[in-house]
Structures are given as C-alpha cells and as structure tokens.
Amino acid sequence: MPDSPFIETFPALAALPGLTHGFLLRSPEIDVDCEREEALARLESFHGGSLLDLGIDRAHLAIGEQVHGARVGLVAGLHPARLHFPGTDALVTALPGQFLGVWVADCGAVFFADPKRRVCGIAHSGKKGTELGIAAATIAGMRAVFGSDPADLVVQLAPCIRPPAYEIDFAARILDDCRAAGVPAGQVHDCGTCTSRDLERYYSYRIEKGRTGRMFACIGWPAS
Known about the structure:
single chain, six-stranded mixed beta sheet, 12 strands
C-alpha cells in the first residue's frame, strides 16, 4: 500500500494478498466551501493523483450515483472512465482490473472482499441506506451473482459520523447487519473513527453544513 498522508488503508484489507483499497482523505489546500458538484470538480486532480498512487486505472473505475437507497449494481465489464451507475449506492464485481468507488462525507463507506473467489464490493451507507439494509443487500448480491459465501468475506467500515455528533448510530447497525448476513464477527471490522472529530483529515457534511468536499473509498482486485 502507498505511503501517503492522504490515503488511509485498513489492516484487515491490507492483509488480503493482491487486494487494492484506499480511503482518500481531505486535501489541506483545496477550498471546498461550495456545493457538492463544484467541490468534486475542485478535488478532481487531487483525487486523481491519489488513485495513481494506488495503481488504479481511472479508465476502469466505476462509481454509483449515490441516492441513499439500497440498489446494488453489478459491474460486469471494464467500463469507460468513472462510469456512474444511476440510482445505485453499492457496486460489486469479480472482474480483475475493475475498481469500484463511492464518495462519502459522514456516511459510511463499507468495503467487502471475498479473497476465495476474488470478488469485491463497496457500499455508501448513511442513515437511510442503513435503514434499507444496503450492507446485507451487497452481501446477498455477491452471493447470488458470484457464489460468495458470507463466511469467506472480510468487511471493513471506514470513518463515518457517530454519536454524540450524530443522533443515530448507523455504524453499529451496519456491523450488526453484516454479522446477521453470515459474515463471522471476527471478519467484520470497524475503524471506530468519527469524521466530525478531525476536520483536518476528514470532510464532515453535518459539521460543515453541507458545504464541503468528499472522501473517496475504492477497492478492486488488480488484473495481475
């Protein structure tokens, strides 16, 4: 994994041979006191450099539209740069060289990896998506399409907002849902970090009243 102050990685995923993952952090220099689309445009070059550090080809990076729902998209072929899947908050693939990503700024980014079948998934799970069971839906999608056994999965929850900064502990619900879906408790991991507590490292939609940037979570099994 790259030695970069702007990319966070997680030991449980880093321990899986061949898997690429990263959680792209806040830029200390880019002004993101603006609406979402403008903030993403300003962060384009910054995030692009971090993706290169991870060895991710942006021509093979798929991103969901993220509407706070529970729809899971199947990425079955190598797609043009940063193809967006409409109405989709989670993506799964078993295609070597295909990478998946979601934007977050308080919502939870949930990484899913099946090292046995080399399947992976990623989900954007905030209050609404968690209530709709998007983590369990992602696991079910990996099982139905690719034959992934939940007992083989490794799940990682990235930094997200948590009580007391937020009134609902959706992080705990995400973890519970993954275990209830059959992922062994020892393979469900949570970094425990609240995004609202460190605005030098993370963006927080709630604390910054919606005018802020986005972290980017990405995962994939390289082609070689």
